[in-house]
């Protein structure tokens, strides 16, 4: 099956968006790195949207297809109770949902210190650049293995 790697608002601008914070790699670079480390029998399905409704729909899709999820909720992390409730549907269904962040939000502005997603996630990985996603992939492997 697929591992869904879902990215929220403004992450389509990776590479040019605040490279001092997020690095110079693009979403396509990230996709290539994830593809090269995908576990046998799993395809990486990496997506990005600025639309909260679309992101929620993708979480329903994860439930319907029993797919593990690696989620970077971006700014929705800090205030979207709707996304939190959808994330809870995934983990309550017994599926893995790992919250990832490129930066370490705890080392940044106060409003980034709280995540409304973390309480319903399987676990959280933050602060390792694109490696946060690779570490999350490793975590998915360990949990499935
Ligand atoms: C982010 C951190 C969020 O605070 C921010 O709104 C983002 C990216 C990260 O990956 O570090 O858009 O989720």
Automatic annotation (TrEMBL):
List site positions: Transition state stabilizer. Answer: 17
Quick one: a GO biological-process term for this protein?
Answer: quinate catabolic process
Enzymatic class? lyase
Which amino acid positions bind substrate, per UniProt?
72, 78, 85, 102-103, 112
- Molecular-function annotations in GO: 3-dehydroquinate dehydratase activity
Q: Which UniProt keywords apply?
A: Amino-acid biosynthesis, Aromatic amino acid biosynthesis, Lyase
Which PANTHER family does UniProt cross-reference here?
Answer: CATABOLIC 3-DEHYDROQUINASE
Q: What is this protein called?
A: 3-dehydroquinate dehydratase
Which organism is this protein's natural source?
Answer: Lacisediminihabitans profunda
């Amino acid at each position: 099956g697929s591992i869904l790697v879902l990215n929220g608002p403004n992450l389509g601008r990776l590479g040019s968006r605040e490279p001092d914070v997020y690095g110079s790699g693009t979403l396509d670079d990230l996709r290539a790195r994830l593809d090269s480390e995908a576990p046998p029998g799993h395809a990486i399905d990496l997506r990005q949207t600025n639309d909260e409704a679309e992101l929620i729909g993708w979480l329903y899709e994860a439930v319907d297809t029993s797919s593990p999820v690696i989620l970077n909720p971006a700014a929705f992390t800090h205030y979207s109770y709707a996304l939190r409730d959808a994330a809870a549907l995934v983990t309550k269904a017994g599926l893995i949902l790992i919250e990832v962040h490129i930066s370490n939000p705890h080392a940044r502005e106060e409003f980034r210190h709280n995540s409304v997603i973390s309480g319903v996630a399987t676990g959280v990985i933050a602060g390792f650049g694109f490696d946060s996603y690779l570490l999350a992939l490793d975590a998915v492997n360990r949990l499935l293995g």
